[in-house]
Amino acid sequence: MAIMKCPSSVNLSQDFSALGGICQTIRTYACRPVNRANPSPIFFTHSSLRISRCSASVLSVTMEEEKEQAFDAGKAALLVKELRKSFSSGKTKSYEWRAAQLQSISKMIDEREKEIIQALQLDLSKPELEAFVSEISMTKSSCQKALKDLKHWMAPEKVSTSITTYPSSAEIVSEPFGVVLIISTWNYPFLLSLDPVIGAIAAGNAIVLKPSEIAPATSSLLSRLLSEYVDRSTIRVVEGAVPETSALLDQKWDKIFYTGSTRVGYIVMAAAAKHLTPVVLELGGKCPAIIDSNINLEVAARRILAGKWACNNGQACIAIDYIVTTRSFAPKLVAALQLTLEEFFGKNPLESQDICRIVNLYHFKRLAKLLDEDGTSDKIVLGGQRDENKLRIAPTILLDVPEDSLIMQEEIFGPLLPILTVDNIEDSFHMINSKPKPLAAYLFSDNDGLQKQFVQNISAGGMLINDTVLHLTVPTLPFGGVGESGMGAYHGKFSFDAFSHKKGVLYRSFKGDALTRYPPYTPEKQRLLKALISFNIIGIILAILGWSKK
Amino acid sequence: MESENEVVGEMERELEEMRECYRSGGTREASWRKSQLKGLLRLLREREEEIFRALHQDLGKHPVEAYRDEIGSLIKSVNYALDGLKRWIAGNKAKLPRIALLMNAKIVPEPLGLVLVISSWNFPIGLSLEPLIGALAAGNAVVLKPSELAPECSSLLANAIPLYLDDKAVKVIQGGPGIAERLLHRKWDKIFFTGSARIGRKVIAAAAEHLTPVTLELGGKCPAVIDTLSSSFDRKVAVQRVLGAKFSSSAGQACIGVDYVLVEKKFSSALVELMKVAMKKMFGENPRESRSVTRIVNKHHFLRLRSHLLDPLVKSSIVYGGLMDEENLFIEPTILMDPPLQAAIMMDEIFGPLLPIVTLNKIEDSIEFISSRPKPLAIYVFTKDESLRRNMVSKTSSGSVVFNDAIIQYLADTLPFGGIGESGMGRYHGKFSFDTFSHQKAVVRRSFLVDFWFRFPPWNDHKLQLFRSSYHYDYLGIVLTVLGLKRTNGVPKSI
Q1: Which pTM does this prediction carry?
Q2: Which of A26, B147, B286, B412 makes an SS bond possible with B121, Cβ 3.0 to 4.6 Å?
Q3: H/E element holding B6?
Q4: Residue pair B316/B336 in contact by the 8 Å Cβ criterion
């Protein structure tokens, strides 16, 4: 893949926090946090929808304020039909179309940066720098990488045919699937919407993007910006919540790319099954971090913080969910984390402008419930303060919560960090393997043997040793889950591949047939075959198919 | 009812034991994988006669055909896997920019766990063992459910596999739709299915219950486009290859067999004449006696095929063959000229020795004809016209495209084999089989050295401004700097 000539345009970057994540479905309340009292009016087309919690099929929804006509299955069908027509015209297959769309997105990010940062501020109180780095820069670099490598990705891959003697040549041609649906999520609402869109464009598909209604400002911004900057006849944004999503999922797509919760992942896959549609599911899971005792604790503490609270305040699918360390080391670790937390976020983290808030009241209450459970609430060793009005919860560390507590059963997706202790650090492997496979697993250790065992014994989407989160900035690595944490992978060339069908194309000449290949299967042919069996097998197949050199 | 529960309980226990066996880590060892592949090789060599016999009993398949399509191609694939195994297991180093300091990144393939392979009856040995090769090479525990419609082959596999492979990690479970259904509702780490699109939908729906990734190898109506070739040699070869791919691969009962032929009207009668001559050569005056044509697998399929021909408009389009022998489940290789496009024979996958020829005004119309129908597993095009070639590749969509031949893509280890849309999802063969049964795990290692104060909060305008100006809006650089992967000109707080 890209070999860099100039170090200033490095291809290492992609997704500092493509922290997919988890719209632990879906309940938005009309009430807004006080610090967002004066939102710009354009941002709220869905400001008051109320959805009861349950699986999509039985969600009851009351749209209290509806500005547009409802987007129902009929409208969705029309939309797909229209896009299918545009796709059939073949325009999306050209290099020019793909490059032009990617350039437009790149331009859009440059020109509208302020609005993007503002939307993220409204949706998540995301600190400007975090927004700039983890959403804007990541998206932009993903776009630049695609533009730079597009020609190379699109070129058919010549392969040697293993049967070397026969006159033929073969190549693998990447062709677009067709009309694809991308459903994104709210925690990195800009990046996680556009990153797959970039892959889908690069691969030459027509696209419908459904951003998350839980980040309404970004959703509406994406809708406006994309219609302004990219080809409207092939790339569309549909805004909305569960009814809109259900209407979309009822349609036949050629590929569905979903980022969000495992629970909704089931619904998406079941819907896809009806039309034999392949899916990529970017889900989450409880990502563990194992902390050995032989480490540079100061550095480790900073990196742990970077992978938890400085990472959308833990609302990220690859954020550390829980820590496993040895009993004897735990107090030192807690002390170091405490020190670093103060350094990063000050004495009163509820007031810090450097940390995101909880996305909405539903999630705030969900997190509060995890904290308040009997048997958990008395395990808090640091933090625990919260402010419901501002939707803020202080970075909170819990020591030795019971394994059957709620907080250890579901993905936390917030600023709570349980630390579990074991006698020997190796015991952590068993603990992690007894849970569903996570999207990421982290280890901090200088012990080579332990590192090796970690890689061998733990199954996870990806793993990172002695740091957090940054493995997904490497575009030469696939990013995606396994088991409960998802299926399929993307980033860099993998994004292109995720949205491409790999078509085997074989060219043969008319020459070189032997009669043995065709009936009648005479005794002579059988004898020839038997004789050949004792020789090399390729030779036999060649003889049968008539590819021998004669 | 009791006994049924017992069966289910027994299956449950067996699967739990297999999971336990997988967890113990034995199947991950390269040595285990190698020994299993070698076991397969031994099975194929030592049980060859039995396999010939079973294939003959189930399908009347001739040993030459059986060797070419099943045993021989399997031996080739096992050898290919044995040859590549060490390289495949080792994974790939991911390229990193030079300035990514003290960091290394790898893609480590890891087995998925306990996987289910459901195969079909038309190549009952080949389509069972070909995916098994990939699953074993990737280090999985495997349950194989062969098709009950090829009972001799199914029981041969069930009896032989435990003798040659690790019976704790590889099991054959025989049975019909009931057993298949029961298996499908268990939790698997991957399901690999070969069969019809109808059952494929059930498989993926069941897989969705447990978020299990699936590979579906389905079929579809694979067209063969025959251009008006000028050289009589080319014509003859094209005809031979099309007929071979239709009638002499399981009598058209193959997912990549030719389903129908597209040809220009003005060439059609010459083509039929050429076909008639070639058919006589291949199958003689009395094909039923030739033993070179596989029979129809069972009564159900025989009746299905016969019903195609019962449609009077279809029947009247027969230009060659048409003879049927219900008792022996034999259908003569049959050619039809322009049957109605709305007839079932042109709507459904034929999967039998009936070959409709559809005429077009211009051969270029074949592109529109093909792309207005569900995406087939393969498109075969016999032409020397460069622009037709180019357009066929870029304007139609299919699992694969083969020029001037048919079916042989199945043997090319370096090409992905798999469908798109109605013809399936996922791919296998060669290294692709290994990948299909592996998770590509990204693994990054860092040292504790080198972190910069830019990377961490508290954020302030100064930091942001610094990023912007020092990188001249080079976004990649910014991300790198924040992550501590790139040296900056500013003097960072030392570590």
Answers
A1: 0.88
A2: B147
A3: helix B2-23
A4: no
